[in-house]
Amino acid sequence: MVLSRASSESDDSVHSTFASRYVRASLPRFRMPENSIPKEAAFQIINDELMLDGNPRLNLASFVTTWMEPECDKLIMASINKNYVDMDEYPVTTELQASHHLDRA
């Protein structure tokens, strides 16, 4: 018995049950929509898609996990808006990159 079906190229719209309170019409799947949508709707649609990826704590099929301690999540969120590519503004990133390349050699 098939519980779900794989999406195909013919599925050219995104349908979101939980974002329907913000968006009444279907959104294009493979291109940018003509008009903008509310930020709440975009969040809900992306969040719904991410939930389909499963729960990493329940992954019993392999010995690989994507779970990490909550403190790591907090550090990532605290630094996510920094432009670490700007080597003049953040010179330590140059040192980190250089040491990373030395470790891999």
Short structural description:
With 105 residues, the protein is mainly alpha-helical. The protein contains three helices and two strands.
Structure in words:
The relative contact order is 0.07. The N and C termini lie far apart (50 Å). By secondary structure, the protein is mainly alpha-helical. The longest helix is centred in the middle third of the chain and has 13 residues, at 39-51. The chain has a two-stranded antiparallel ribbon with strand order 1-2. The chain is extended, with a radius of gyration of 20 Å. The chain has 2 domains: 8-56, MYOD Basic-Helix-Loop-Helix Domain, subunit B; 68-105, no CATH class. The protein is 34% helix and 4% strand. One of its GO terms (molecular function) is glutamate decarboxylase activity. Its cofactor is pyridoxal 5'-phosphate.
Based on the model shown, name its key terms:
105 residues; mainly alpha; MYOD Basic-Helix-Loop-Helix Domain, subunit B; 2 domains; two-stranded antiparallel sheet; 2 strands; 4% strand; extended; PyrdxlP-dep_Trfase; calmodulin-binding; calmodulin binding
